[in-house]
Amino acid sequence: HHVQRLARWRRFRESSSISKRPFLNLSYSKLSCKAKFRALCALNCCWYILLSSCRFSSSHYGLSLFVPIRYLADPRCVKVKSGSDYSLANNKPKQRSLLPRHCDLGMEQPKDVSTDFNTAWGCREDAQTVAASVPHNEGTSPVEDTTIGIVGGGLVGLAAAVALSQAGIPCRVFERALAMRSSSQGVVALWNNGLRALAAIHPELPAKVRAAGSEMLTVEPTIIDAAGNVDSKVMEWGKMAEAQYGQTSVMISWHNLQQALASLLPPGIVSCDRNFDGYHEERSSVLLRFKNGLQARCKAVLGCDGMFSGVCGQMFPDAQFIDFGQVTWNALLPRQGLPPGSVISNCTKRLNSSEEPAWSSFLNDAGSGDAYVQVRVSDSEKSVSMSASLGRGGLGLAGSKAQMLKVAARRANISEAVQAIDEAQLFERCMMARVPHSTWLSAGGRVALMGDAAHGMHPSMGQGCNSSFEDVVEMAEALSSCDGDWSTALARYEAIRKPTTDLMQLFSNYVGAHYNKGEAAELSDQETRELSSWAQTFPSRGPPPTSADVVRKFDIAGYHGIKVSSRSQL
């Protein structure tokens, strides 16, 4: 009835001398307040009925189909142009920071970010148009549909997208940053299991990472005991790895590995500026919400958003974090900027000192003409204070170089290398990990965790990223053979991966707890090597050695210098 009344008023208006303006800007002065309110309510209900019965796109339908009632009530909010083109005068999207909110154990803040994210990520232009033009309100934002939604565009998220694309499974990566990185301050050591997993994900990946990285042919470990006695040697690491695994390990910068993965993705797979805000499991799908108001409906969701995962945060609000009481400074810079001889091609220089406070360092060839410098020290007080920021630390923090030099001054070659680093290139963070979760699946079984979101571990054994690529292989196999039964596929993935990865996580955290403490671990060097060798075997990994029982029984919460707390306490 009220719609008919309003239609009669429109016909009167069009035939009268009233100035002809767009419908949404017409004057309602001829109607009573009650009639005007009823008409608007009726129109709003009709539009929602239309929306519920059809799919729509902002580029194909006019504004009059889906503008909420508050915009009708205040026409000043809307400027109508020709046809269906429009803009929201008082509802412009906020300019978001280029830097991620958090940082996990392999994701440092970038020095600079490419602004051409449509080119860098292969983003769809229409997705960017929607984000800039549609009002971000519950119930009015377009809902993007895909089969598998991947939260997080880091290494694990991109690897999962590559694997699913290879298997022909539609997927979409939702990344909070506006562009992928053009630089980073971290490196990834790819061991045998990680390299074999990458080969299973895409046959071109091993060649790409070897071209951009540096093969680890020699390792020069230096051990300093509490009395200051020094023991140094040179190990032919490449020959040992070839003999045991049939291939050498690779050191590669974080951003070069990310770009290698992104280069294998079809266009339009990654959606940028999608900062996860929550998920809702429905009967046969999962609705993802993002902080810019956009949404996506997926058959299943993979949480690949790192150590401080938002997906995991919703799944386990009181998940346990481990603060190891260790602070790390690292930088990635051109080799020519360091003193001659500081870094040797295809070589890793590693130092472990039991002096008080215990500390360690790395001087590595990272490939592509870059060198990686790291200094780590046990400093429980400072590390705990940093954990208030969820362990992310920061890039170029004032005074970080001076703190690093206090530690590095004990060794001339390391001190000289640190002197050559610009403080703006230094990234500082504390060492954190997770206590193993009881499950990696959501209550409805349609959301699963992967990578650091599932099993964040201390980087001492270098298995965080490598084991994550194994996650990707098993997940892709489970999803490609499930015949649309997505929740069963996620359960199969968890059943295969969780027992093995829980032990890897415990082992890495065990070594990390003793790392730089100046104390002998209960495991002997031989037992540690056996467990490490077991971890690097993929895909035909047998049962772990008996020494794994020591790791399983270790009470990390009772170890001095270690702080275990829930997410809400950080």
Description:
The chain is 35% helix and 21% strand. It has helices at 2-15, 33-52, 69-73, 117-121, 125-133, 155-166, 192-201, 205-212, 237-245, 254-262, 310-315, 380-386, 400-408, 412-419, 452-455, 464-480, 486-514, 525-535, 548-553; strands at residues 78-80, 86-88, 143-151, 171-174, 187-190, 214-215, 218-224, 230-232, 250-253, 270-271, 276-281, 286-290, 295-303, 320-334, 347-353, 359-367, 370-378, 394-395, 427-434, 447-449, 563-566. A hairpin with a 4-residue loop joins β12 (286-290) and β13 (295-303). α7 runs parallel beside α16 (464-480), α8 (205-212) packs antiparallel against α10 and α13 packs antiparallel against α14 (412-419). It is globular.
Question: Which properties best describe this structure?
Answer:
570 residues; alpha+beta; 9-stranded mixed beta sheet; 21 strands; 35% helix; globular
Secondary structure: elements and pairs:
Blueprint: H1 2-15, H2 33-52, H3 69-73, E1 78-80, E2 86-88, H4 117-121, H5 125-133, E3 143-151, H6 155-166, E4 171-174, E5 187-190, H7 192-201, H8 205-212, E6 214-215, E7 218-224, E8 230-232, H9 237-245, E9 250-253, H10 254-262, E10 270-271, E11 276-281, E12 286-290, E13 295-303, H11 310-315, E14 320-334, E15 347-353, E16 359-367, E17 370-378, H12 380-386, E18 394-395, H13 400-408, H14 412-419, E19 427-434, E20 447-449, H15 452-455, H16 464-480, H17 486-514, H18 525-535, H19 548-553, E21 563-566
Parallel strand pairs: 3-4, 3-13, 4-10, 7-15, 13-20
Antiparallel strand pairs: 1-2, 5-9, 6-9, 7-8, 11-12, 12-13, 14-17, 14-19, 14-21, 15-16, 16-17, 18-19
Helix pairs in contact: 1-2, 6-10, 6-16, 7-16, 8-10, 13-14, 16-17
